[in-house]
Amino acid sequence: MTRLNPAPRPRWLTAAAWAAFALVLGSIVLGGITITRSHAADTGGVVLAVLPHPDDEFQVWSMLEDRPSDYKVFLVMTRGENTGSCDPAGYAQAVEPDEPAPNPMPTGRGTLECARARMNSLLGYLSDMSRSDPTIPGDFGDPIQTNPFPAEPGTVCRTVDGVECAIQNTSAEVWVDRQNRGAVVSFDLGDGDLTEAEATWAITTTLANRAALGIDSTSPPLALVGAFANTSYDCFPYPHPDHVAVQKALWDTDYGAGLQAAATCANDPDEAFERTVSDESVTAAFQIGPNGERLGAHVSNYGWLFPQYYQIDRTGQNLLFTQHQYFWTRFNE
Amino acid sequence: MTETTAVQAPPAPAPTRRAPSPRIASLDLVRGVMLIASVGVNSLIVTPEWFDHARWESVHPIDVIFPVFVTLSGCGLAFAMHRGVKIAPLARRVVILLAAGLLYNAVVSNTWDIGTWRVTGVLQLYALLVAAVGVLHFVTRTWVGWAVITASLVVAQVVLLSVSASQCVGGVLTRACNPSGAVDTVVLGAYHIYQLGAAGHDPEGLVAALGALISASAGATVGHLILTTRRTSIEKSRGVSGAVLPLLAAAAAFAGLALLAWAAPGWFGGEALPAFKRLWTAPFALSIASATTIALLLGHLLVDRPSRSRVLAVVSYPLLALGRNSLLVYFGSHALMSILQRPIDGGPSLSARISSAIAIGGHPQATWTALLLLFWIGLACLLHRHRIYLRP
């Protein structure tokens, strides 16, 4: 069947049709964005910062700051009890007059006091940071000591004084934010002898036992973000075995908990995205007064762990702590 | 006021009747090739993970088939609607497709529970695209107009996805954080979308539909471009070669726009928008459109010439027959395989049993694929011979 050539349409009708198209398309986009934002604010989710030690938080801070709907869990694998700064001689070298003393005063490496002082530094750091960023958990009460969690024999094993499996501690200590912003979950898996299997066990155990740990068990997990490590690329070298163990645990196992990422070098071929910590958070963490006063939460709470104080690289990746942070991702393909 | 001389207008010319243009066979040919791939893929008894649908931010071979089908459908709709759109047949077509999609979902999931009946699916998505492309033909029926529509849809989707990504941890779209999980759940209800909402998105939901519309409108752009170049070629007696430069330019433009859509969010502080099927992102849709345009150009040069060699006519006949019944073969092969792949009494499926029984030379998969291809090609040829085409 042949058809007649249609008569040309008046221009105003064409203009009206295009205007209607633009209006509908604009409404679809605006509607979609509104629903997505409202959904995100309503449902929220749990973000786990997977950290080998209680002072590694800032390595992933860009993924945590200023996110009001996220429940942030600082999953700390070890208590950092083997730091040389807990040794009286090391402490004398590391601490400076402007730095608050640890609490309690450590009496030696590997001691209970050292572990407590490290964890208290972390709690103090978070508490200070939550003043400038109210989305950060920092209002902690007394910790909860959980019952031991099940683990395959030989998975969780601490070596002490050369004795393998001297300690098999599968319980956790948990500090829950009283304003429901997040929590600190601390395992005691051995500072300096953390293994990939232990880190994998701790992540799996935390995800599977949120109610038992007393943390948010209803919101969906949104992300697992691991601390920095670098054994191969051209940026700050950091082959610390505990950090490598955490990265391997996140690289090799799919936890099905949303984004699975870890901090890396910008020139890592697996680098997938970059985030920048806000200037406000950098200042809140690393500010030094005109006379060397430790004003920032990081330099103040962790100052005793490092000769002088930890510094931040605001432009590149020549230090452990950086403002521009780069991440690889896994299992998002 | 100047005085004007009244001039009698010449009598309006009588409406001219055009001789029917020969069918543009290249579309059928490329559809036929796509359907060979589709039937082959559907016939897999065990699909390797690298070949099966990617779980999220990646593209596996099987992810390409439906978007090619949608792009070609956009081209076909442009051919069908370039002189106008008839509302009633369009509405009837959309309603039939929607109803068939709902029925298909019930058959495939083997449940008739209204409370958990999935309302989205490939047929429903296709229905939505037919409706949208039909309505948009009231806005424009030129290739330039459709190029503008395609670009507008790309901008809209890039804005939607990148603003949504900015809500996600690290600005990265994941299965746990994406606009489909929010929009499709809120609008359609979690129990009525893909995997009852447990997957965190719907690959045939409303958000993916926006990406699919990019594919369809890119196809419509190419369709109108082919019609325009053909008109010009006939006027200037240039043959099919007149389409080479315009279609190559269109393919390059789609590829360039895909790159822009990928990179643009990064210029505004976000992350690059990857090409992947699950959300039918613009870079993905446009890359497919670019490749499909090249395929259409090759087909155009091959089978739209005024005369075809006898060998070419014989070789292309099954492909053209498949292409003429693309809806039947595409959705029919999906439906048939979803039934044949269902395990029987907890044991092997009918397809596994039949393929084992008829395996030639110890190759059950190859035999089964060949058998299915023969069946669908044979059916399409038979229907083509009798000029029976499924057009809901």
Pick out its properties:
heterodimer; A: alpha/beta; two-stranded antiparallel ribbon; 8 helices; 31% helix; disordered N terminus; B: 392 residues; mainly alpha; 62% helix
Can you walk through the features of this model?
The complex is a heterodimer of chains A (333) and B (392). Chain A is built from eight helices and 13 strands. In chain A, the strands form three sheets. In chain A, strands 3-6-7-2-1-8-9-13-10 form a nine-stranded mixed sheet, with helices on one face. By secondary structure, chain A is α/β, with parallel strands linked by helices. By secondary structure, chain B is mainly alpha-helical. Chain B is 62% helix and 0% strand. Chain B has helices at residues 25-42, 65-81, 87-109, 122-136, 143-165, 179-188, 206-236, 244-267, 282-303, 310-324, 326-340, 350-358, 364-385. The longest helix of chain B is centred in the middle third of the chain and has 31 residues, at 206-236. Chain B is globular. Chains A and B meet through helix 1, strand 8 and strand 10 of A and helix 5 and helix 6 of B.
* Extended strand count of chain B: 0
Number of strands of chain A: 13
The fraction of residues assigned to DSSP E strands of chain A is 15-25%
Ends distance of chain A: 50 Å
Shape of chain B: globular
Which two chains form the greatest contact, residue counts included? A-B, 45 and 45 residues
**Gyration radius of chain B, rounded:** 23 Å
Question: What is the SS-derived class of chain A?
Answer: alpha/beta
- How much helix, percentage-wise, in residues of chain B? 55-70%
Largest sheet of chain A: 9 strands, mixed
Multimeric state: heterodimer
Mean pLDDT of chain B: 91
Q: Beta-strand level of the residues of chain B, as a percent range? A: under 5%
- Average pLDDT of chain A: 93
Helix content of chain A: 25-40%
Total helical elements of chain B? 13
Give the biggest beta sheet of chain B.
none
Structural class, judged by helices and strands of chain B? mainly alpha
